[in-house]
């Protein structure tokens, strides 16, 4: 019977850990089993040859496969529930995001709700499960750090894209944060994967894919309207102002005049709200300033409807909250509302 030296036993223990077996109890059991198998050989072959032969007896999946099967048997109910949640959340997120994108392109109602549900489901249900499984498979501290970094990067990508699409305040800061984590994650992921011959090709291809997606998102995020678009919007806004002045000169309605004065007062008080300040995606206006404008104009419109209620020809106007969009400035949207009020009063 062959007797193993302490150096050979230490080598086997270290090799077991390097092959992805991180469970302490399983490491000890495998070490004991492998040592017993080697000691049963009575031939004079080198230790390394007998050791490799013993490892071949564990099958194609090797020691890592034994650990996976062991963990699955121990945590089968837990993993089963997690997989069901992952499948459900992944399906729900895919359907919501695809439907929301379609509804957004077609300008159908409900698009924003679908995008919000899809993004939140993807960020807080599917991604945590996916990266948790990746985290558990890592045996080195570096791999766990890269998995955590990938989770944060993916979450920032989803949330910043949602904020940018819906023109919510804070989108720019989130995109900057995503860019920083993205620049850190991609090199670490590719370099770490290339060190293992088994994952070298997949690391390069996945890194290229991640870089393409991230670069595309950043390109769309920082895209600004062309000069032709801004010039066209400026021209339309000037014509709208001229039309409103023409209608104001044809009537001396005090209620309408007070409404226009109230709107103009709000616009002058808001930073970057008038002129070309918000042509484009409207980023200069933060959420609080926009909410202040909406509240003030809504109150002015309620007052106008109340004062004009005695006029039987007056059709009460409804207020749709003003938003910063790609298609016009806040000032232009206020001008449209003021013009609608005058058209309504003159339509007899």
Protein architecture, described:
The protein has 348 residues and is mainly alpha-helical. The protein folds into three domains: 6-71; 75-221, no CATH class; 227-346. 74% of the residues lie in helices and 0% in strands. It has 13 helices and no strands. The protein has helices at 6-18, 24-39, 47-56, 62-74, 76-106, 111-137, 141-165, 171-194, 200-221, 227-249, 254-269, 287-307, 330-346. Helix 1 crosses helix 2 (24-39), helix 5 packs antiparallel against helix 6 (111-137) and helix 6 (111-137) runs antiparallel to helix 7 (141-165). The radius of gyration is 32 Å and the shape is rod-shaped. It starts with 5 loop residues before the first helix and ends with a helix.
Q: What integer is the average pLDDT?
A: 77
Strand/helix succession: HHHHHHHHHHHHH
The number of helical elements comes to 13
Helix content: over 70%
Features:
mainly alpha; 13 helices; 348 residues; 3 domains
How is the secondary structure organized here?
Elements: H1 6-18, H2 24-39, H3 47-56, H4 62-74, H5 76-106, H6 111-137, H7 141-165, H8 171-194, H9 200-221, H10 227-249, H11 254-269, H12 287-307, H13 330-346
Helix pairs in contact: 1-2, 5-6, 6-7, 7-8, 8-9, 10-13, 11-12, 11-13
């Amino acid at each position: 019977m062959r007797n193993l030296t302490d150096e050979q036993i230490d080598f086997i223990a270290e090799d077991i850990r390097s092959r992805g077996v991180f469970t302490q109890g399983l490491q000890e059991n495998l070490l004991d089993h492998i040592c017993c198998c080697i000691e049963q050989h009575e031939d004079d072959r080198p230790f390394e040859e007998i050791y490799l032969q013993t490892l071949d007896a564990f099958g194609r999946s090797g020691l890592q496969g034994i650990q996976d099967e062991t963990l699955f048997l121990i945590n089968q109910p837990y993993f089963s529930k997690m997989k069901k949640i992952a499948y459900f959340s992944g399906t729900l997120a895919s359907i919501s995001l695809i439907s929301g994108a379609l509804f957004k392109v077609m300008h159908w109602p409900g698009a924003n709700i679908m995008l919000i549900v899809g993004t939140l489901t993807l960020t807080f249900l599917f991604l945590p499960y996916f990266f948790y499984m990746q985290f558990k498979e890592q045996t080195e501290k570096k791999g766990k750090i890269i998995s955590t970094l990938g989770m944060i990067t993916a979450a920032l990508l989803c949330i910043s894209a949602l904020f940018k699409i819906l023109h919510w305040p804070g989108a720019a800061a989130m995109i900057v944060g995503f860019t920083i984590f993205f620049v850190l994650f991609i090199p670490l992921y590719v370099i770490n994967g290339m060190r293992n011959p088994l994952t070298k090709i997949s690391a390069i291809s996945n890194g290229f894919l991640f870089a393409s997606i991230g670069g595309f998102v950043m390109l769309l995020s920082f895209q600004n309207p062309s000069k032709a678009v801004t010039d066209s919007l400026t021209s339309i806004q000037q014509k709208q102002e001229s039309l409103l002045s023409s209608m104001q000169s044809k009537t001396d309605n005090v209620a309408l005049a007070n409404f226009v004065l109230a709107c103009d007062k709000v616009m002058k008080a808001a930073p970057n709200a008038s002129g070309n300040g918000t042509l484009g995606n409207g980023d200069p206006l933060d959420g609080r300033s926009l909410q202040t404008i909406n509240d003030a104009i809504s109150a002015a419109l309620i007052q106008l409807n109340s004062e004009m209620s005695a006029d039987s020809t007056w059709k009460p106007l409804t207020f749709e909250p003003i938003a910063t969009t790609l298609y016009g400035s806040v000032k232009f949207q206020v001008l449209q509302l003021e013009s609608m009020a005058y058209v309504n009063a003159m339509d007899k």
